[in-house]
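Hi P.,

Sorry for the delay on this. The queue was packed all week, but I finally got your sequence through. Input first:
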Amino acid sequence: MAPTLKDRVVVVTGASRGIGREIAVRAAADGANVALLAKTEIPNPKIAGTLAETAEAVRAAGGRALPLVCDVRDADAVQRAVTAAAEEFGGIDIVINNAGALDLRRTPQLPPKNFARLLEINVQGPFAVVQAAYPHLRRSTNAHIVNVSPPLNLEPSWLGAHTGHTVGKYAESMLTLGWAAEFASVPIAVNSLWPATTVASTGMMVAMGEDTVRAQARHPRIMADAVHALVTRPTAGCSGHFYTDEDVLHEAGIDDLAQYRLAARDEDLTGNFYLASTPLPTV
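Then the structure:
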């Protein structure tokens, strides 16, 4: 199979900005049909990026765009959006569960409603999207699901550093393992992809400040290129794995990662949460 997404139908959640936007634009560069799911329809003066802006960028890159206002916490809204995408483009080949919530507060400081939000966005959202997309994915000739979630690192320091956030992201990673087994006979490939270093995503910049993040990060485009390399692989033999963006790009023969660096030097890059190569946090 040629490594292209031309005419494929890609559903991307959290598509109005950051990693999701870059994934959508990269797929569009191949001539893909991209369904863009996100909440941000009206510009936010504090956070750049809207669905309309991503849709414009997708079209400019050479793809077809279908912007769909959708909160992944609303299963009915997800079903409507996924159905609209399948009807508009004639099916669905790829689902990228990129929408995510970030809240690193420790248990005494994390309000119950915020913990619930972590679970709703990071777990219930991907479940609803895949459940709605499944009837269409099973008819694809090369179906892929990618969850932007980490490897299951059970080192207590990672679990204890920000328990609420970790529970949500690890549950999403459990979905990867479960779906890989459940959908193996279809087949649908299901994998998790996680940045090896800090990426200048919108969530990270809101949490830590743009200048702080950029000084230690890579551009979100690295995740877009890694997603592209992963979902253009044949489904067979490619499921149930926890990849980093570096892993996938190296396997694709892309070894020069300097093109993605925002930090001044490679030495300034910070390893991402939950990876064995990243220094353990202090609990």
